[in-house]
Amino acid sequence: MSRKYSYKDAGVDISLEADGVKALIHQLSYKRSGGHGMLGDVGHFAGLIDFGSKVLSLCTDGVGTKMRVADDIGDWTTVGIDCIAMNVNDMYVMNIEPVAFVDYIATEGIDTEQMIQIGVGLNEGAKRANMNIVGGETATLKGMINGLDLAGTCLGVQDRDRVVTGEKIAPGDVIIGVASTGVHSNGYTLARKIATENGGYAAKLPSGKTVGEALITPTRIYSEVLDVCREVEVHGMCHVTGGGLLNFLRISEYGFAIEDPMPVPEILQWIKEMGELETNELYRTFNMGMGFAFIVPEESVAKILAMVDGAKVVGHVIPEHKVLLKGVEIN
């Protein structure tokens, strides 16, 4: 029998995470003296470094508990794509071009076949993002790590006057959502709990695909963003990751009204039904079909819809700093 679930009950408290991050950032008061200082504040999707006429960017992220699904299925060929996607998509939000990447693997013990498969995914992710993997680190931490954790750090570059920070966003701007490939790499503590208690990874979806196959589908890499920003005016962008629609609040002092949300992928519809999840819980935990978004003036809409696969108008910018889904606030 299915029952109601929540991300908090599954072990992840989004509000507590936000408080913890704020507490950490509050301690980061030191600023480098001399050249190549930091631009902007900590808290955007990627950090920016002054490099004269250029801006360098750094961000870091990992695969999270999606690794547990890969472990249970015994297929690690796609998690490297996720690792790179979660980094480069954060850079695309600011129109930064990713150029180099280093990975970090912490494991309780080396499994050669597992490492080969992880390498396959990392290589494919680098190809999709047109980026070099220039190094990495593997640490065997038996007694500290249970399984394997994969993360990485990305370096990007852009002309200073082409960086998109969201500061041009204004009420009335149009929100264009771009389709996700499924759950991507967030909310897996809850997704795994629902899956394992409702038929397991071998359970079949209406399409015939198994739940496990759907959950291991890699995160979409939105590399077309760079072309879009060369062709049309873009005021801001958002990578919809952990926190769902609440990610929009990171990029502007204004708010965002989603009136016509993206179609919900099959696996997320299944999670919704099996978990009997409320709308607020769904849209603050998962991407719910929208993995990325452009915030643009009306005159940019038609060209973006023509350039980007799976893009549609989903809403507009509002004066109040909040996110509305069909008129109801997500919090």
From TrEMBL:
Alphabetical list of InterPro entries matching this protein: PurM-like_C_dom, PurM-like_C_sf, PurM-like_N, PurM-like_N_sf, PurM_cligase
Question: Does the record carry Transferase as a key word?
Answer: no
Q: Which CDD domains does this entry report, sorted A to Z? A: PurM (cd02196)
Under catalytic activity, the entry for this protein gives: 2-formamido-N(1)-(5-O-phospho-beta-D-ribosyl)acetamidine + ATP = 5-amino-1-(5-phospho-beta-D-ribosyl)imidazole + ADP + phosphate + H(+)
GO molecular function terms noted in the UniProt entry: phosphoribosylformylglycinamidine cyclo-ligase activity
Task: Please state the Enzyme Commission number of this protein.
Answer: 6.3.3.1
Question: Which top-level group of life is the source organism from?
Answer: Archaea
Residue ranges constituting the PurM-like N-terminal domain according to the UniProt record: 46-157
Q: In which pathway does it act?
A: Purine metabolism; IMP biosynthesis via de novo pathway; 5-amino-1-(5-phospho-D-ribosyl)imidazole from N(2)-formyl-N(1)-(5-phospho-D-ribosyl)glycinamide: step 2/2
UniProtKB keywords:
ATP-binding, Cytoplasm, Ligase, Nucleotide-binding, Purine biosynthesis
Question: Which intervals hold domain PurM-like C-terminal?
Answer: 171-322
* Top-level EC class: ligase
Work out whether the entry's keyword set contains ATP-binding: yes
> Where would you say this protein principally sits, based on its record?
cytoplasm
The protein's location, in the record's own words, is:
Cytoplasm
Q: What family does this belong to?
A: Belongs to the AIR synthase family.
Its protein name is Phosphoribosylformylglycinamidine cyclo-ligase
